[in-house]
Amino acid sequence: MSRHEMRFAGLWRAPLPPDTMYAKLADIEHYPAWWPAFRSVKATGGQECEIVIRSMLPYELTVRLRPLVQNPVERVLEAELEGDIAGNVRWRVGDDGGHGCVASFTEHVSVRKAALRRWMPLARPFFHLNHAMAMRSGQHGVVAGARHVGPTGMWMWMWIRAASPTSRRRPER
Fold first, then answer.
1. Helix or strand or coil: residue 1?
2. Can you tell me the distance from the alpha carbon of 68 to that of 76, in angstroms, rounded to the nearest whole number?
3. In this predicted model, what pLDDT tens digit does every residue of 55-77 receive, in sequence order?
4. Euclidean distance between the first and the last CA atom of the chain, given in angstroms as a whole number
């Protein structure tokens, strides 16, 4: 892996049927409505689109997204990214044992935006944190939307806390 490459992986849990989560993730055009890090999505022809992403750090990424795999039976999505970052992202959605679904993602990208490449050696931990915040905002958006079709009240709050990766603290050594 070169010094400009980054890999990310994670899980989202949500009180949604797996097919509903897959459909939500496949509908990229509507990401800005529920995922705050996606500032805009513009169709550019065919299935391709241009997306603008920004999380907590003061920079935007403009990327052309081209779907490679859209398999609703296996609930797998994969896309190629080209622009300020280049690489691919993959989602796989499955059942979470009857409590909703789990969506796993992997992302492997190379930073191409010149201003960010200059800062890579020092800023890599901040880029990872920025990505984590963007992903967390997306997971919160999915769960907030699921409240209309899932459980509500105190039980829902407890379920969100239990599913949140930050709710599990590592034991201190």
1. coil
2. 10
3. 999 999 999 999 999 999 999 99
4. 31
